[in-house]
Structures are given as C-alpha cells and as structure tokens.
C-alpha cells in the first residue's frame, strides 16, 4: 500500500454518509481513503468483514451517492499501518468538557503552526501561553491566572495517564502523559506533561507534542550528508550506535528511522525495543514499554527473548549503560540515545556510568558515535542578504561571521517575517550531524592520550564536525549565522580546538 497524507486523505464514513452511525466493529475495521489527484474512493477492509451486513450497507449508500468505490482487502497489520499514517477526522472525544476542548484547541493550533512544545506560565495575576516553533519560543496569548489553573488541572487530572501524583500539585513537580485518544486526530501519539512550581500558586508547565510519524524518513531528508549516510549504514549492522544531543533535537526520530532502515533491510530478524514510554510506532519492530522494571532489568529480560537487534529508548544511568554493553557482548546489535553535548563525550559518559575500560575502548562494541542538532531554516521568501542586514549585527559578531563563514551567499533572518513563514522568518528545521566511526586508532588515542587527541586526529583524517556542517548551511544561505553561533556551536569552535594542537 503506497499511501501518504500528501497524496491521499482519510475520510470519515459517518460524515460522508450524512451522519449515519455504524457499529464499533465496522468502524474499526474499515478505512475510506480518497486519492487526492483523481478524487477516487477506496475502502480498505479487514478480510473478516466481507460478509458483514453493515459493510454491504456502506457500499450501497456510497453507490446511491454516486461514488464508484473500489475495495482493497487487508489484514490487521496493514489496516493498523493505515491508521498510523493518517490523522482520523472523526476521532474527537465525545462529551469533552469546555476546558478539555480548550486544551485540545491549543494543541490543534500549536500543531498547525509546526509547534513542538506548548509552554504555560501561570503567574500570580495572569497566564502566558507560548509555543516553541522551529526551535524558538513564541508568545501567543495572555489569559487570567484562574484560566491557566483550570486548564492545567483539567489536562493533568482528567485527560492524562501515568500521572506522578493523583492530582496536579502546585508544591511539587509533576509528570504525566496525555491519553492518545485525545490527540490522535492531530497527528500526535501523546503529549508529555511536565510541571514545576514557582511558589505562591505560580506554575511552569511544558507540554511536549509527540508526533506520530506518518512515513519513514530517508537519511538525506533528516540532514545527513552522503558520506555520513554511508558511515551510518555501514556501522548500524553491528556493535552499538549511540545518538547524542540535547532534549528536543531529534535524537529519537533519527534513531527510529535508523531502526526502520534496518528492519526493512532484513525482515527475518527479531528486532525489539525497550522504551519509556512508547511514542511513535516503528515499522518492523516489536515495541515494548519499560513498565515497572528499570531500563537495565528490561534490557536483560529482552535478551531472553532471542533478539537479533535491540532499540533502547535511552541510556539514563549506570544500570542501563552496563546492560546495553552486556547486550552487545551477546552478539546483539544495539541502537540507542544518550544525553550528551558532543558525541566524542559519549565514551566519558559511559565511563562515568561504570562501563569497564577494556569494553569502553573496543570499536567492535561501541562502533559509532553520532551527534546532532536541529537548525531552523531561513524563510526563502524574506531572508535578508548579509550585506543588507550586517549593520544590525554587533561588531564582534560581524567579525566572527565574516572570518569563519564569509559573506558571500550568507543571509540573516527577517525579524518580522512574511506570510509564507507566519511572520517568523523561519520555515522548518533540518538536522546537522557529526558521525564518528570508531576504529582501533581512535580508541587507542582516546584511552592513551585523551579525548581531544583522538578527536583532532579524527578531524585531520577528514572527519566532518557538527560545527563544519552548521557553517555549510550558513554559506548556503539556509541558516542564520547569529542563531547558529548562539544555539548550535561557536563558529570558531573548530579553529580554537586546533589552536596549539601541534605543540
């Protein structure tokens, strides 16, 4: 089935057939898809429904309305894949309260604006609502403090699950997960709720919008260069591949796409995951939540399930780090994420977690270290040429940009934006990467002479740093140099690292 939201639309049977209500059994096992170019309709139907009287009724009603509708018979796996690829139009929660609907309207608006997070700041006299769009916080509206309190109480107390407290606390931090049935129609698998009290009734809330990926993204769509893609494809097949970076910069997405690449390459492998929690569906994997086990306990339990490969959602502490290495030692290849500023520091983090040195510096065990950041892309309609906007940049910053990125082809963000970018000056984001393929020389230098010696040697042999890739985007006119310097890495980072390295 070659379906996607760019070429097809999932229609509501109830809405198309004048509000007629069908049984849950039929609704869950039939999907009506419209091909956007031809407007042709096709019913994707579970094979077991072929003799159901309601199915014949649906076909007759569609025929009477003049729809020439074809039928494709599916198994349950194929039908579930369709459900994951599209945001259903008729899955709004019936009987939702006013404040539930207000929360859903915020989520819907944030998604429509390409938001990744919603921030709610309840102050003593007012509430601020902000969306993080393309990496930047944007203030959207101001409401009363009472409005904010009722909104967050409703979201946490009646729309969430896996709450850390029985009800929202204004004295202690709280965590929860918004139930999927509330947000599925917006293309989300959940929203992660986290709060922190500010005292005297004040509260800061961050709501991460977890998108349900509609399709597998290729490595070049993620931002990897051809040479980086070749390294990753080569190294994913054995040992451990570790993805690092700050929160919200796409580690999980890239890791999931890597898992799907491996699963498609060999469907005969037993590929399983341990996640906390399960967020986006990963095609080809049997996904499992951590549950009440620690990550280490879950990984060790998974090793008794005869896996060929493991996807581990995150290494958080010593137990999960050591269990991951134990898994690789059994011959199971692993892909996972870890919070680190730079990929070269992953080894030091694992060392701090207690991984033994002879295992830590073995390139057959830790085979690839990947760092990434998401960089906002300048709106091509309103971006400002460097020679036009350079006077608005501080003298220090002007010198830095012109020294390390030049001025030819460089552009700045238009602060007021245009209609094309919703007055933000930014249109989308792309990843910049640093992919370190470990070998015996890299590990020997790291163990004997330290991190910087190994890293500089990797650079001298042609390794492309995250800073170099970010600078490439600047020179291509796709990224704002000031933003990159402040948010991604100093433009002079590589030059400073190399300074004095020959001594």
Automatic annotation (TrEMBL):
Superkingdom of origin: Bacteria
Ranges that cross the membrane: none
This protein's UniProt keywords: ATP-binding, Nucleotide-binding, Plasmid
Domain Bacterial type II secretion system protein E: 105-478
The keyword Nuclease belongs to this UniProt entry's keyword annotation: no
GO MF term set: ATP binding; ATP hydrolysis activity
An annotated GO cellular component: plasma membrane
PANTHER family in alphabetical order: PROTEIN TRANSPORT PROTEIN HOFB HOMOLOG, TYPE II SECRETION SYSTEM PROTEIN GSPE-RELATED
Family: Belongs to the GSP E family.
Name recorded for this polypeptide: Conjugal transfer protein
